[in-house]
Amino acid sequence: MSNKTFEVRVQRGDRWIIHSTFDVEREALSEAEKLLKTKVSAVRVVRDWERAGGRHVEKVILEKAGSSDGDDQDVRISHIDDAPLCDSDGDLMQFESRATINRLLRKYFDHEILTPSEVMYNYQNLRKLMFHDTLMPTAVDKVAGIHARATDGDHMAAMDKIHGAIDQLAARAREVEKVDLPAFENATISEVRDEIRRLKLAEDTEFLTMVAFTRALSANRSWVGKLDLALQVKGDEKDEAARKILDDVVTDILGSPVALKELLGSSSSFGEAIILHIDLAMGRARGNPGAADDVLELLNPLFGSGLLSGAQNAMFDYIVRELRSPNTLTNRENALDPMVGILDRLISEKGVSYDGPMVAALAERGARIRNIGGPRALIEGVAEITERLRANWRKMSWLLAVANSGIVGSCGDELFKLLLGTVKDMQGLRAFCDSDAKPRAKMVTVSAMNQALLASELPNKQKQRIGKMLDEGLADYLVREKVIERIDNPSLHLRKRAYMLVQFCSSGVLIEGKSASMARKRVVGYLKQPNFTDKLVDDIKDMTAKEGTIRDFYALLQRSGF
């Protein structure tokens, strides 16, 4: 292949910034002429020639003045608070690092319609970023400052480490820049990777597969187009290596707010946008008008089944940062409160989605709603979120998640009072359960919350007190609704009644305590009846069938703990 490339550069002030790179001279010249018709101050085409020893020689083959002071928008680094340590190129490629780079260089990536992976695995894209004004040095300086503070280390030493990692990455990407790799034309990730493996090249196969993939992605100048390409070539979901590559690519693409907007359509408010993002993370997104519905149809099952765990975590991390931001959820008067939809989606019987980070973000949002800061901000925020939840089981699930997160610190007594409030009214389970829940669903909910209570970080005395109120509420419900009497229907044969009662006792809808004892007592009463075994099978004529039925019933008793 040719060892020449042709860079199209535009002038910004006294600096020349790489706009694009071509392998063919006439394509570079054509792009330069197109740029001159826009508002640029000057355009230059530079031939870059790599000699045998690796030294590069540049020659300007075109330079023309334009009609403006420059068309490049002011691309600067974005604010970040933390960054993972990076000692090597491998560290830079990890999820946490790519996510940080995505946020730090967000304006650049959106301007160029590129992802971190497209830059890291593609030398032309990486070189363009490295020569983009002072963007790279500024970004390195920012991250080095964070690293130095986190480790009590030297700022300059931290910068040297990061620059070293970038140099390693650049050398690796440059080494494979001219290597012919299979194209993603009617081929899956697995097929391309297998074809690359057969080439027996010196570089790692997975790395080269990403190089080939990012070449195809970089040719697409649309966020949704990149996402559609990735999902079209995903191939066999059981291929873990291919799935990991897809996960990384989707993670990077969805790190762009612009990409999310193109995928899901425009939102009428910040709160509505958060709801759309939560639905996407959970694999049930339905976009607004203008959404890429065909892409969502491909993406939803992958998120819903957990096959894109990296991208899913990245989405929840993004949602956490949205909730922690100062942005108002809605500016419209008399509009539905977006917080209701947000909480309904994030809080379930299993707790709060994304655990501690989401709990803290919701508490901070609650404190912001109350406009309270200082040491009481989080407990006040917790109380605010609690008040916005409807059924008491949902309040309990939220408060147990808060207890497990440890965010309220010395306000544990206040948290316990809030928890007691969720079991204060257990009459008929009306306040505790959803109003439209069926009887069995109500019992399942109470039992599930008792299990969550037992597994929580609350002190044992608090667990016992709340657990007793849950158990008594459930037992009262069994009596009030005559649940056991309905199961033990006298019109049914004894065997049917006994089977149903034993199965009810072992179904997991009861709490070990008062409620479970009531049901077990009825079963034990049957077992103590004179000639119970004979009555159990008195309608069966065949002796073999009788013996088999008796055997099955006592096996069921044993499995159920009787």
The low-pLDDT segments are: none
Q: Give the strand line-up of the largest sheet.
A: 2-1-3-4
> How far do the termini sit from each other?
78 Å
| Sheet having the most strands | 4 strands, antiparallel
Query: What percent of the residues sit in helical stretches (DSSP H or I)?
Result: 55-70%
Structural class: alpha+beta
Average pLDDT figure: 92
Strand percentage: 5-15%
Query: What would you report as the Rg, rounded to the nearest angstrom?
Result: 32 Å
Given the structure, what is the number of helices?
A: 28
The total strand number stands at 6
Shape: elongated
Main attributes?
4-stranded antiparallel β-sheet; two-stranded antiparallel ribbon; alpha+beta; 562 residues; single chain; 6 strands
What does this structure look like?
It is a single chain. The protein has 28 helices and 6 strands. The chain has 562 residues and is of the alpha+beta class. It has a 4-stranded antiparallel beta sheet. A two-stranded antiparallel sheet has the order 5-6. Helix 18 packs across helix 19. The protein is elongated and about 105 Å long. The chain starts with a strand and ends with a helix.
Compose a concise summary of this entry.
By secondary structure, the protein is of the alpha+beta class.
Give the helix/strand layout.
Layout: E1 4-12, E2 15-22, H1 25-36, E3 42-50, E4 56-65, H2 89-92, H3 95-104, H4 106-112, H5 116-120, H6 123-130, H7 135-151, H8 155-175, H9 189-199, H10 205-218, H11 223-232, H12 240-253, H13 257-264, H14 270-281, H15 293-304, H16 309-324, H17 338-346, E5 347-348, E6 351-352, H18 355-370, H19 377-388, H20 392-405, H21 412-422, H22 439-454, H23 460-480, H24 483-487, H25 494-505, H26 514-527, H27 532-536, H28 543-559
Antiparallel strand pairs: 1-2, 1-3, 3-4, 5-6
Helix pairs in contact: 7-8, 9-10, 11-12, 12-16, 14-16, 14-17, 16-18, 18-19, 18-20, 19-20, 20-21, 20-22, 22-23, 23-26, 25-26
